[in-house]
């Protein structure tokens, strides 16, 4: 991998022959586990400005209509997270000369609070081509990491490393986006691109305006990135005068979460479904049905197909999908479960698909055969799909690759939980092109969630679960036991799936919090957590959910058989102690009576009690001797499932139910400490 320095540039063609589609990752970490940022992409024309508001991509506008840009979202990585961007450079409009890659924080957060700021660019096969680390971040709340720019028929990358104290709003302004201080949301600014002078004004349409978090715009203007004189002459042109235009946004179709009132006489009447699941009787039937349904919907709904394949290096083009294709391999042809082909500019991208349902494991030998076939036939990828969730994006099976082969085949893994998450995000929050496509996705989602489909995501804590539980109960589990590491890995997969499911339902980013430096080895980190499990008998996790007032903590105590979900909320500044307590109890009017409330003071913990006891006596939460209240810890306890599976009495089901109950009955009723503009106010999807 080629390491970049600030201001340096390089031709992508010199790094890879297959750089027509790339995935850019912007990553960071935080020792406290609390730091985060959001990526932005801007497409710039000849004047160094966006052509219109459609050229500005961020969390409220994650994908371009032509598929050239798609924000893939955040994934846990080491001790932090990375935000990934798919760029199909062959699909970028000819009048786009530069693609700027940036990230921003909101509120009072600054990039100097984050560690390991880094950009990585990978080619279509997933091979990292270049990396650029930023080490001088300070008070900036937005950062230009780098840019891709045209050079002849190809593209070059330039490392920028320039910060803004003015946040996303200041960055957007510098690239030709007008910032309206009179946004509809409190604490937000509206941004809209200006139209070049001389063009007829377009009529306003009835969609809201894109918004970004409010930031002060009093800091310095941006400086051009360090580059050679030739690069400056080639890429930077004087910006033409621009005039303001009416706010517009492309309307997309979403479905209401609540279904229409049923006309059935009673609950025994089942609605007719496009994809019925009740008649399936064997795993072979489930695999065949699930594969065919998923691939056909991917081909029919462009946003969905692109969403699932962009991260794997597929171009934005015409997609066709196939099942049960016979491919020669030795004496006996092999039949992968599916084939995905995408055509773009006369070139084909092909992936073989191997599918498992109902908790069945992928087989290394089978996947190896498909990797060999793909390499011989010049295909680009093999995609495995199962209920299991991959960690750090790594494949679930080990395969051997022939380094002597010039053609590279990438191996990727997709979880059924990720498929359901993407469908949920599109039809409930971001939107698709028309109502028919939304209905198709809804039918697919209903099928995946059916008890008989076998597509329920991670559903087994593994063979080590029972002996580890017994070892903790009898106090015979010792440090260094490899089975404890297996349980920790299964716990991380479960938490990742909880985040996917919760994020899809809420339409918000939900990620596990991983504390520490990114340089920490994942296996070493899990070994430390496994030793802690042996000593304390507890599994712990933290979730960061956009819009939540704090980090949601989950503790599974294997000794007591209890699950604890909790969140800490800050006390309002300047309020009297009793006023703060009464206000909190009013917010928790609909919370369960057995919710535990604990006062937090500067020296540690203060008084505590259940809501049932505190409602008539709120003064019982006041600390003695006038200690200052810093916040409150809210906790709910629930019985833990014993079995390793996802049945009604299983551990996985109990974790899902505990998180859902706590979020719905407690977290959802609390005001966010720092909330970004809602999608509905942003007018995107």
Across the major sheet, the strand order is 23-24-25-26-29-27-28
Structural class: alpha+beta
Identify the quaternary structure here.
Answer: single chain
Unreliable stretches (pLDDT < 50, length at least 5) are: 181-249, 674-685
Strand content: 25-35%
Shape, per Cα inertia axes = globular
Q: Give the C-alpha Rg.
A: 26 Å
The percent range for helix content is 10-25%
Task: Tally the helices.
Answer: 14
Q: What characterizes the major β-sheet?
A: 7 strands, antiparallel
Kindly report the average pLDDT value: 83
Separation, N- and C-terminal Cα atoms: 37 Å
Describe the protein's architecture and organization.
With 685 residues, the protein is α+β, with helices and mostly antiparallel strands. The protein is 25% helix and 27% strand. Helix 4 crosses helix 6, helix 6 packs antiparallel against helix 7 and helix 9 packs across helix 10.
Secondary structure elements and pairings:
Layout: E1 2-3, E2 9-11, E3 21-29, E4 38-44, E5 56-57, E6 69-77, E7 80-88, E8 98-104, E9 115-122, E10 128-134, E11 142-151, E12 154-164, H1 167-174, E13 177-180, E14 188-193, E15 195-196, E16 211-213, H2 229-235, E17 242-243, H3 283-300, H4 302-309, E18 318-323, E19 338-344, E20 347-355, H5 364-377, E21 381-386, E22 410-415, H6 416-430, H7 435-449, H8 465-473, H9 482-506, E23 510-512, H10 522-536, E24 538-545, E25 552-557, E26 562-570, H11 577-587, E27 596-601, E28 604-610, H12 611-614, E29 629-639, H13 651-665, H14 679-682
Parallel strand pairs: 1-10, 20-21, 21-22
Antiparallel strand pairs: 2-12, 3-7, 3-9, 4-5, 4-8, 6-7, 8-11, 9-10, 11-12, 13-14, 14-16, 15-17, 18-19, 19-20, 23-24, 24-25, 25-26, 26-29, 27-28, 27-29
Helix pairs in contact: 3-4, 3-7, 4-6, 6-7, 6-9, 9-10
């Amino acid at each position: 991998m080629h390491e970049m320095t600030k201001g340096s540039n390089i031709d992508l063609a010199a790094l890879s022959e297959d750089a027509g589609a790339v995935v850019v990752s912007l990553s960071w970490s935080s020792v406290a586990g609390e730091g985060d940022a959001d990526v932005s992409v801007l497409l710039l024309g000849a004047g160094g400005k966006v052509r219109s508001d459609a050229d500005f991509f961020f969390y409220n506008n994650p994908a371009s209509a032509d598929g050239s840009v798609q924000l893939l979202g955040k994934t846990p990585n080491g001790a932090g997270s990375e935000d990934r961007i798919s760029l199909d450079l062959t699909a970028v409009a000819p009048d786009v000369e530069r693609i700027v890659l940036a990230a921003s924080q909101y509120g009072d957060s600054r990039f100097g609070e984050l560690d390991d700021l880094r950009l990585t660019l990978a080619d279509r096969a997933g091979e990292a081509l270049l990396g650029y680390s930023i080490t001088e971040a300070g008070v900036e709340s937005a950062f230009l990491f780098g840019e891709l720019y045209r050079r002849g028929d190809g593209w070059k990358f330039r490392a920028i490393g320039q910060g803004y104290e003015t946040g996303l709003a200041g960055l957007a302004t510098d690239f030709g986006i007008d910032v309206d201080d009179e946004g509809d949301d409190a604490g937000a600014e509206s941004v809209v691109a200006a139209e070049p002078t001389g063009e007829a004004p377009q009529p306003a349409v009835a969609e809201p305006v894109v918004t970004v978090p409010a930031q002060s715009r009093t800091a310095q203007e941006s400086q051009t990135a360090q580059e050679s004189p030739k690069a400056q002459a080639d890429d930077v042109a004087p910006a033409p005068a621009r005039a303001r235009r009416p706010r517009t946004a492309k309307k997309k179709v979403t479905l209401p979460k609540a279904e229409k009132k049923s006309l059935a006489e009673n609950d025994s009447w089942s609605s007719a479904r496009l994809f019925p699941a009740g008649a399936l009787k064997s795993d072979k039937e489930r695999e065949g049905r699930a594969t065919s349904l998923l691939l056909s919907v991917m081909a029919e709904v462009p946003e969905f197909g692109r969403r699932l394949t962009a991260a794997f290096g597929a171009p934005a083009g015409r997609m066709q999908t196939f099942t049960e294709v016979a491919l020669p391999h030795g004496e006996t042809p092999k039949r992968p479960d599916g084939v995905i082909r995408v055509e773009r500019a006369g070139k084909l991208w092909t992936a073989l698909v191997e599918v498992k349902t109902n908790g069945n494991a992928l087989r290394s030998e089978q996947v190896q055969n498909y990797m060999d076939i793909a390499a011989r036939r010049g295909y680009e990828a093999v995609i495995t799909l199962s209920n299991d969730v991959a960690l750090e994006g790594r494949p679930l099976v080990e395969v051997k690759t022939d380094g002597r082969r010039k053609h590279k085949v990438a191996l990727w893994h997709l979880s059924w939980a990720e498929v359901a998450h993407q469908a949920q995000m599109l039809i409930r929050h971001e939107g698709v092109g028309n109502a028919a496509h939304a209905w198709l996705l809804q039918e697919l989602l209903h099928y995946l969630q059916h008890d008989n489909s076998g597509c329920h995501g991670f559903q087994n804590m593994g063979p080590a679960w029972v002996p580890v539980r017994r070892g903790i109960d009898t106090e015979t589990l010792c440090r260094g036991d490899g089975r404890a590491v297996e349980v920790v890995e299964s716990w991380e997969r479960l938490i990742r799936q909880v985040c996917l499911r919760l994020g899809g339902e809420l339409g918000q980013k939900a990620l596990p919090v991983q504390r520490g430096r990114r340089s920490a080895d994942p296996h070493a980190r899990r070994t430390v957590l496994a030793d802690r499990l042996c000593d304390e008998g507890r599994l712990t996790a933290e979730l960061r959910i956009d819009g939540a007032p704090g980090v949601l903590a989950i503790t599974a105590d294997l000794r007591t058989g209890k699950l604890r979900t909790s969140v800490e909320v800050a006390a309002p500044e300047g309020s009297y102690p009793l006023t703060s307590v009464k206000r909190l109890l009013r917010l928790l009017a609909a919370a369960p009576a057995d919710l535990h409330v604990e006062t937090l003071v500067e020296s540690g913990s203060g008084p505590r009690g259940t809501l049932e006891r505190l409602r008539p006596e709120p003064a019982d939460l006041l600390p003695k001797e006038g200690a200052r209240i810093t916040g409150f810890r809210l906790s709910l306890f629930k019985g833990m499932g014993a079995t390793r599976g996802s049945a009604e009495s299983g551990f996985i089901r109990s974790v899902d139910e505990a998180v859902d109950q706590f979020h719905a009955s407690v977290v959802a009723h609390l005001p966010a400490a720092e909330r970004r503009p809602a999608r509905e106010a942003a007018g995107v999807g």
